[in-house]
Input
Amino acid sequence: MSVPTASGLSLVVMGTGPFVVPTLEALVASRHQVVAVVTRPDRVARGRRPPPNPTRAAAGAFGLPILDPADVNAAEVHPQLAACEADLFVVCDYGQILSAQTLAIPRLGGINLHGSLLPRHRGAAPVQWAILAGDSVTGISVIHMTSALDAGEVITMRTTAIGPRETAAELEPRLATLGVDAVLEAVDRLEQAGSQTSTGQPISCGQPQDETAATRAPRLTKRDGFADWSQSAAELDRRRRAFDPWPRLTAFVPQADGSLRRLVLEETEELPATGNASAPAGTVVATDESGFLVACGGGSQLAVRQVVPEGRRSMTAAEFLRGSPVRVGLRLADPPAAGDSTPPARYHR
Output
């Protein structure tokens, strides 16, 4: 039986956000050789700095060559990728779907580190959708990539429980760390499979996904964070945890002049229904030194403990109540019919 060689594989790592950074660091420290990093180009708006690119920063710290094509699948980019002479592409949190032609460039194709237990939560925002769905367990999957979104054979998985109060901002770095050993294992398995397979034969060292169990985790928009008070308090609290740090759960407070001001609900808690359960959804039914209570769908109630008023700093809900129009009996407004649905600067792939 062939065994992995001491020199390891030649790798091109593709990523943009922070999710791939622990894996990049581990691959650089491994017996494998990272020959280049491919990332998204910086988006520069007039008068503004480009948003942070953690992958670019990590690659620069290691002195690795960096490619940042606008379209990684463009025909003129393929010679640049081929010149890297990589055995394998390692892709995570990149932001572009690789075509079959791009995946055919390295000898062993590509693998993708994905932040869910595939086939559940295929798509751009698996961490957020796992929390939003109320999953108690999630994890990571390393798949042998195809041109179909997150549909390749699963080489390896790792699982972890989702804490009852855990936010996406807390869960995502845990999953990124969980994925490190899984990626190293997948690279080693593909190296061994490649050494045992005749040239031209497909390489397979994973398990096909059950298409009947697939669910979608589409990219988030700003409007996804707008509070819909017809939903239950449990669902709204999950949305608050899922949408931290973006787009965040946002309510709309009516002002005396008829305008609406945004109020980010930074800390919330589902409470058992009380005698106020018949109040219309969105109505403030109680206030006290800990914050305020809002009636939600199905007679449920959401306690608001920490907020960020539009244009101001984070503060306790009790502090916000002083000088605000929020009083018992006030009904928080429904989301505007039309609004800003601009996607975030990056999204999780």
Observations:
- Residues 168-196 form the longest helix (29 residues).
- The radius of gyration is 23 Å.
